[in-house]
Specification:
The protein has one helix spanning 2-24; strands at 29-37, 47-51, 60-63, 69-75, 78-85, 92-99, 104-106, 109-111. By secondary structure, it is of the alpha/beta class.
Length: 134
């Protein structure tokens, strides 16, 4: 009986130690960062787009949180691009971002105020003056 218990404990420990290295190996990476303006103030609600040609799951969208942070997780190793857009600011593209397995890449982005132009169109005609009646 004691021999059977020792064999079971040995088998369980061998399985445990054989499976441990697989838990430590991550096959994905992460891109995160903060979006701020030229003064250093964080900008919440910014549209952030992640894209990668030919990578499954490479095209993703996110919006910065109240601290101006964004995050893309579980990225397959490859080359990515991040595009940041916000009305009133110039869009920013960061390209050739290489992600490897078990890697976190921080990409902070500063948005500059863009060309703001308002177009006002007024259409109307002056009423014709009727000079025949008082």
């Amino acid at each position: 009986m004691r021999k059977v218990i020792v064999c079971i404990v040995f088998a369980i420990s061998v399985l445990f130690f054989a499976a441990t290295p697989t838990f430590a190996q991550l096959q994905t990476g992460t891109i995160n960062g903060t979006v701020q303006d030229g003064t250093g103030a964080v900008i919440p609600g910014v549209d952030v787009t992640l894209s990668s040609v030919g990578v499954i799951g490479g095209n993703q969208q996110s919006i910065t949180d109240e601290r101006g942070n964004y995050r893309f997780i579980n990225l397959v190793p490859g080359t990515y691009a991040v595009r940041v857009e916000m009305p009133g600011f110039r869009s920013v593209n960061r390209e050739n971002l290489v992600i490897n397995a078990d890697m976190t890449l921080r990409v902070n982005i500063t948005l500059e105020v863009g060309q703001i132009s308002d177009t006002v169109t007024v259409q109307g005609e002056a009423p014709l003056l009727d000079t025949t009646t008082a």
